[in-house]
Design brief:
By secondary structure, chain A is of the alpha/beta class. Chain A has 11 helices and 9 strands. In chain A, the strands form 2 sheets. Chain A has a 5-stranded mixed sheet. A 4-stranded parallel sheet of chain A has the order 2-1-3-4, with helices on both faces.
Amino acid sequence: VAADTPVIGIVGGVGPYAALDLARKILEETEATRDQDHLPVALLSLPASIADRSEFLLGHADANPGHAIAAVVEQLARAGCRIVGIPCNTAHAPPIFNVITRTLAARRCSIRLVNMVEEVVRSLASDHAGSVPVGVLSTTGTLRSGVYQAALAAAGMAVVTLDEATHAALVHEAVYSPRFGIKAHASPVTDEARERILEGIGRLAAARAEAVILACTELPLAVPERSVAGTTIVDATRVLARALVHAAAPDKLRRGRD
Amino acid sequence: VAADTPVIGIVGGVGPYAALDLARKILEETEATRDQDHLPVALLSLPASIADRSEFLLGHADANPGHAIAAVVEQLARAGCRIVGIPCNTAHAPPIFNVITRTLAARRCSIRLVNMVEEVVRSLASDHAGSVPVGVLSTTGTLRSGVYQAALAAAGMAVVTLDEATHAALVHEAVYSPRFGIKAHASPVTDEARERILEGIGRLAAARAEAVILACTELPLAVPERSVAGTTIVDATRVLARALVHAAAPDKLRRGRD
């Protein structure tokens, strides 16, 4: 590892397990055979300070969590990070993400914030020349924000989604249900959460999606597979991990994946 | 989570996967049903700056990694951490650990450093009133340093170890072999590494150990079980995780384990 390799910052706590999943995928996507080969990483998890992103987008809470996320990014910058990833797709919905970028700009924080949505669409565009129908599974807030639909359409890709009620029951509930959701039961994930997400993938595949984006960072905790019943699974967390490794040290990026 | 809850610091990179395993076990050992219930944690992983602990203890390298570890602890303190854990048993061997504590004292860094070895012995003493024979599996450096043997003996517990050549082949190699060791192949761990560690546990059990300490933080990555063939497995990483949660917020410690 070169001495001037930038430190990768991770905004932790959104959610806590998802942030560790990103950190782990950064290790997995780095060429390394001993401890010293791995890249410098700082993870700051202050979950109690960051209000729920879905609650804000759905209009159930007033405080925009973008301000608290920007404060964590600033702390990472002060600790020496020059590249930062936020392992929460919902935080990339424009009502939150724009507050993060505006706050950082106002405070003259010049850290490079890697945009997970842009990276996922870029990765899909490079893997699938031409237009394939792509399905999206996310929180209801991310779905309603249209952030993935807009980015995919701008790249010329057709988007497949489920109607909102079905999507909420199969995906949002798999993340947020107090009884079986991943935020309350991450280790291990419940069978109920996994089955609902698999059902969502199956319905998108039946609607002719050739790839399905797991566009909420809790989802790959339940479905780690790279394909399900012939449908390619695009793990947004792994795409972000690879983008962060590439941004910090392109020669260290593990080959043969993406 | 109370607003004055201290931030838990994790010295990352020693090794990188082990640090994430500690961070994950801190989450698992915290009473939480939503993101905001989890404790504040900062993890700083600068693996290239910290020389291999075993190489130093075995006399194959001159630089004492204790200085670099102390520097990471200081950075965590500057970032606001008040409690720190080091998820590397080998770094707790006195030739390294004493340098860490002396360096921090000289720089007037008053952070609370939770000692993994002391916590493991305390946990065993509280679970097993009276003396049970306890086996120890670790790197060869930790074994030679005698840090676990001394702490267990001081607590009145009989210690079972393997002869050094057997221990090196079954445990040190499972961690360090470039071909199958956990440091080079952590995700997934190789069958060969797991089989060797299980063989080590089996031999200690045959030598009448009633509990076996996984006293190297790579070992639970290969053997997550809480018991193997009737022998209790003491995961030093999980004990450290519980000690850190208890130190930061005792009322948040998950009940019914230890």
